[in-house]
Specification:
This protein is of the alpha/beta class and 335 residues long. The chain has 9 helices and 15 strands. Helices cover 34% and strands 22% of the residues. The chain has a 9-stranded mixed β-sheet. It has a 6-stranded parallel β-sheet with strand order 3-2-1-4-5-6, sandwiched between helices. The radius of gyration is 20 Å and the shape is globular. The two termini are 37 Å apart. The structure holds nicotinamide-adenine-dinucleotide. Keywords: Oxidoreductase, Plasmid.
Length: 335
């Protein structure tokens, strides 16, 4: 049996997840949740989704009685992740929620508790955890192939000068913040999984606002430095001012890097021992097939993809905002 998945929020990323579902070995697109009737009609026709598996945001809770949906994959704006995770859990459905998991650590705790109470699994959409170049970065860093990593530079940015001023990415309520919330997650994640450590402190600085008509509620760019127990530092920028997409790690006896490094790729990388040679894969299919067997077999999800992992990222994200606002070094709890 394949895991029967309903996609909730049919925007840009949902289309990539849909393509991943089409290639997945263990999952199948079975239902949709959308606020736009025209989209519902198109998806029903194009992807053979029965009417009984189509929901609006208002009648979503009726999914409770639908035995042909196992899991809800939430690709809504960040500010709606918590509400729909709680509603899916209440309806007895497993959840994959996109990054960032929610807007605060408290939100994440409530989501984790709700899923635990309902006896459903909760995963966060960390596609790079299943991507071969990133698995290699983890191996090189955590196994200290070039000795202790001392410095990581990991930054991601897209120039958003042409963005619709009404886009939810510019809304504090719907996005929770600017490029830090949407792109910074990848930089933080790469630092955490390459070092295999949790940051203990953060310093941060907001960048200049060069597009004042757009960035009234959320930051246009922010740079930060995560300080790890080993003494390693991960320095990053998440920005809407310019395009940047790279990862670099310097260790005692060598270095390794990816550029493009944190986007959808295709990634190109090398280490002091030569160029990487890993296949280009469908990242969404790999992620779905990494998660699904645990749910199908009723086994607990590995920690690195669980709600707890999402919560840890939120703790860092909130710490970065606090450090940038106060100009002070902010200590981070280690659990
Ligand atoms: P999007 O704007 O393209 O899609 C959002 C969808 O939510 C749209 O279909 C929109 O109609 C719907 N929606 C419902 N209520 C809404 C409201 N009140 N305001 C605005 N839209 C509303 O956005 P996206 O790029 O698909 O991002 C969706 C989620 O996926 C975000 O959490 C984002 O961080 C995440 N994402 C993840 C990746 C990844 O690689 N893992 C990549 C892109 C986006």
């Amino acid at each position: 049996k394949k895991l029967q998945v309903a996609l909730c929020g049919l925007g840009r990323y949902a289309n990539l997840v849909r393509e991943g579902l089409a290639e997945s070995q263990y999952c199948q697109l079975a239902g949709i949740v959308t606020g736009t009737p025209a989209k519902a009609a198109r998806w029903k026709a194009d992807y053979h989704i029965p009417e009984k598996n189509c929901y609006s945001y208002q009648d979503f809770d009726k999914i409770l009685t639908n035995k042909s949906i196992d899991l809800v994959y939430i690709t809504l704006p960040n500010g709606l992740h918590k509400e729909f995770t709680l509603r899916a859990a209440k309806a007895g459905k497993h959840v994959i929620v996109e990054k960032p998991m929610a807007l605060t650590e408290q939100d994440c705790q409530e989501m984790i508790a709700a899923c635990r109470q309902a006896g459903v699994q909760l995963a966060v959409g960390y596609r790079l955890h299943y991507e071969p170049h990133h698995l290699e970065l983890q191996r090189l860093g955590q196994q200290k192939v070039f000795g202790q990593v001392r410095l990581i530079e990991a930054s991601l940015g897209y120039r958003l000068a042409d963005i619709d001023p009404q886009d939810w990415h510019l809304s504090k309520a719907l996005a929770g913040g600017g490029p830090l919330m949407n792109l910074g997650v990848y930089c933080i994640q790469s630092g955490r999984y390459v070092l295999g450590e949790e940051p203990v402190a953060v310093t941060a600085q907001f960048g200049p606002v060069t597009m004042p008509g757009l960035f009234t509620e959320v930051e246009e760019s922010v740079s930060w430095q995560l300080h790890f127990p080993s003494g390693a530092v991960c320095t990053s920028t998440a920005t809407a001012s310019c395009n940047i997409d790279r990862f670099f790690a310097s260790a005692d006896s060598g270095s390794f890097e990816l550029s493009p490094g944190l986007s959808y790729g295709p990634f190109r990388g090398k280490s002091s021992r030569g160029a990487f040679n890993f296949p280009v894969i469908n990242q969404q299919a790999a992620q779905l097939d990494g998660i699904a067997p645990y749910i199908l077999d009723s086994k607990p999800l590995p920690a690195h993809i669980s709600g707890e992992e999402g919560r840890k990222d939120l703790r860092v994200l909130v710490g970065i905002y606090k450090a940038a606002k106060t100009g002070k070094r902010v200590a981070l709890r280690s659990n």
